[in-house]
């Protein structure tokens, strides 16, 4: 008996295959009435995705995932890209290719790079949204007009129709940092926050949650300063020096992005190590001396390598098995301390960073 397929659903519903795909995968860009009609037809005819047929179809052609992430800060994004590349190798037998177009940093425009990826006929896009004002309409066009699945990694642009987003929950991240800080500084302490860009959803949400929770967790405690460093090391360093000069009684600094080295350097140069509790975000080998000297107290690990793996895995699970994308995929943060640093891949110098080498990345910024 012939299998009832997606084209049969489209024929009975009098819509395109793309519209059926949107309905079956709970995506936007389709009205409620049409979605319900398609789902009813699928259910009444016992429709189920055919993984074997999908795999064979992919094997006959090239299936491409486009990746548009920043090059800087490389500590984080090299790990994320390595996760994408390693996971993609598991699907080479079905014709999967990864096409990479990098941008310089989180504040860089991404439209040119994404358009070049679309010219490569990608079927899915993995992107880190930095500037929502630029990225939001771009995501809408990619999803709705080009029928390309968009997976946000490391940050999100939640008001858009992106298929899913993978990260540590920024609300949890900010709350976790606030609770840890409150346990490590005296009551009534003055603390500061160093972030990247408040126009980036993930950065803004972490900051807001920390500011909300810290005075609750630490009686009399308050956030006295918020620094936007725009992920530029020298800017973060200069602004941290100014912060230390203006607040001689500062007892804590929460760094909500990976850019912690300039902060640690400024604190050490001003002989404030041991006086100021620093809680950072993510891990890389250059942090080790600061942990060892106890300048850096803890870091909230967001596992960028796993985020890259999951981006590919969710895309392929959707295309091969018809499994709907989750609205969000939050991974559990891990607290890194001086005593457990050796357990993290970034500190071991093995696997994707074996012998200190990073994955081969194409040259040129877009």
Would you kindly provide a brief summary of this structure?
With 366 residues, this protein is an alpha/beta fold. It is 43% helix and 16% strand.
In terms of topology, how is this protein built?
Layout: H1 6-13, H2 17-24, H3 32-44, H4 51-59, E1 63-68, H5 74-89, E2 96-100, H6 111-119, E3 124-127, H7 132-145, E4 149-153, E5 164-167, H8 170-184, E6 190-195, H9 201-217, E7 222-228, H10 233-246, E8 250-255, H11 261-269, E9 277-281, H12 288-292, E10 298-301, H13 304-321, E11 329-330, E12 334-336, H14 345-348
Parallel strand pairs: 1-2, 1-3, 3-4, 4-5, 5-11, 6-7, 6-8, 8-9, 9-10
Antiparallel strand pairs: 10-12
Write up this protein.
The chain has 366 residues and is of the alpha/beta class. It has 3 domains: 41 residues, Orthogonal Bundle (434 Repressor (Amino-terminal Domain)); 151 residues, Response regulator (Rossmann fold), CATH 3.40.50; 132 residues, Rossmann fold (3-Layer(aba) Sandwich). It contains 14 helices and 12 strands. The strands form 2 sheets. A 6-stranded parallel sheet has the order 2-1-3-4-5-11, with helices on both faces. Strands 7-6-8-9-10-12 form a 6-stranded mixed sheet, sandwiched between helices. Strand 6, helix 9 and strand 7 form a beta-alpha-beta unit. Helix 1 crosses helix 2. The longest helix has 18 residues.
């Amino acid at each position: 008996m012939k299998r009832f397929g997606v084209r049969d659903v489209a024929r009975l519903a009098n819509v395109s295959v793309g519209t059926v795909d949107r309905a079956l995968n709970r995506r936007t860009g389709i009205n409620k009435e049409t979605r319900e009609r398609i789902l009813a037809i699928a259910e009444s005819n016992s429709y189920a995705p055919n993984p074997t047929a999908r795999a064979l179809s992919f094997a006959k052609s090239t299936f491409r995932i486009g990746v548009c992430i920043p090059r800087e800060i490389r500590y984080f994004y090299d790990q994320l890209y390595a996760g994408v590349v390693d996971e993609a190798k598991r699907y080479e037998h079905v014709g999967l290719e990864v096409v990479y177009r990098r941008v310089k940093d989180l504040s860089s425009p991404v439209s040119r790079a994404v358009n070049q990826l679309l010219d490569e006929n990608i079927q899915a896009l993995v992107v880190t949204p930095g500037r929502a004002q630029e990225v939001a309409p771009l995501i809408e066009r990619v999803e709705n007009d080009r029928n390309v699945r968009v997976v946000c990694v490391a940050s999100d642009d939640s008001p858009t129709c992106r298929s899913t987003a993978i990260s540590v929950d920024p609300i949890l991240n900010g709350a976790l940092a606030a609770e840890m800080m409150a346990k490590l500084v005296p009551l009534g302490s003055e603390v500061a926050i160093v972030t990247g860009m408040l126009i980036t959803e993930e950065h803004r949400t972490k900051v807001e949650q920390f500011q909300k929770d810290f005075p609750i967790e630490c009686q009399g405690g308050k956030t006295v300063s918020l620094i936007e460093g725009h992920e530029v090391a020298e800017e973060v360093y200069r602004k941290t020096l100014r912060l230390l000069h203006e607040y001689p009684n500062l007892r804590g600094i929460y760094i909500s992005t990976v850019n912690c080295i300039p902060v640690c350097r400024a604190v050490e140069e001003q002989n404030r190590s041991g006086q100021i509790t620093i809680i950072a975000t993510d891990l890389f080998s250059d942090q080790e001396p600061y942990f060892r000297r106890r300048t850096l107290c803890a870091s909230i690990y967001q596992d960028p390598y796993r985020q890259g793996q999951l981006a590919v895995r969710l895309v392929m699970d959707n295309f091969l098995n018809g499994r709907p994308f989750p609205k969000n995929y939050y991974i559990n943060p891990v607290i890194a301390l001086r005593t457990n640093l050796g357990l993290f891949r970034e500190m071991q110098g093995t696997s994707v960073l074996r012998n200190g080498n990073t994955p081969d990345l194409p040259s040129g910024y877009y």
